[in-house]
Amino acid sequence: MDKWKYPKMIIFDYGHTLLYEPGWDSVRGNAEMLKYVTKNPNNYTLEDVRKAAELIFGKHIENIRKIGYDIGGQVCDKVLYAYLGIEFSLTPLEMETVFWNGASMGAIMPEADKMLDYINKKGIRSAVISNLLWSGAALSERLNRLLPMNQFEFVMTSSDYIMRKPNRILFDIALQKSGLGADEIWYCGDNPQADIQGASQVGMHPVWYDNDTEREYKDHSVEYAPKCEHLHIREWNEMIDLLEKIK
Predict the structure, then answer these.
(1) DSSP code at position 214
(2) CA–CA separation, 31 vs 40, rounded Å?
(3) Element (H, E) at 141
(4) 151-179 pLDDT, tens per residue?
(5) Whether the Cβ atoms of residue 159 and residue 131 lie closer than 8 Å to each other
(6) Phi, psi at residue 241, to the nearest 5°?
(7) How many angstroms separate the CA atoms of 159 and 174, rounded?
């Protein structure tokens, strides 16, 4: 802790850090989308959409993600529904949010709202970087709905920038946006490789948020403890305690 500066900014991961997605059901998301269909010449059903999505997203897009890149959700939707010949009375952004909210309305990680309120009151700036298929605009809508007190200066998603964490390009872009030195920023996330080692490589101070809420969604077989210097917390109240000790 002696080497850690009181942060001028804290950047957060999104999923399982600030919010999570209980009861996720992609079929339910697709069902919500189909309420807005204006053209479906082949009379494709929800099951047809599910199978096509499995092909487009589950096979091709997932292969791209495995090598460290993302294609934006709006482009993926364009491919999927052009493949089916289906059209909607929705903008590309609305297509993202209707599906996402249908699949899960989202929920706040324990005490995340309290922690954000604390750093806002202390004048600590904040932002978000997430590995996410959806756009920064769609993520901002969700963050603003569930965490209306947030003061995030920017919200970055991998689908808007092609690269996925831990690619340092995302973190370097965040540094440019912040106008700060890396040692003036803390980065908090739940993934020891993408978040903790990713942030460490550019000199940010990483905080591993290792909370037990709905942990079964993660593939722990591909994770291992970070090999870089970091802080390890399990609850957001611990973050507040840390900041109180070094202010």
Answers:
(1) T
(2) 14
(3) helix 136-146
(4) 999 999 999 999 999 999 999 999 999 99
(5) no
(6) -60, -40
(7) 15
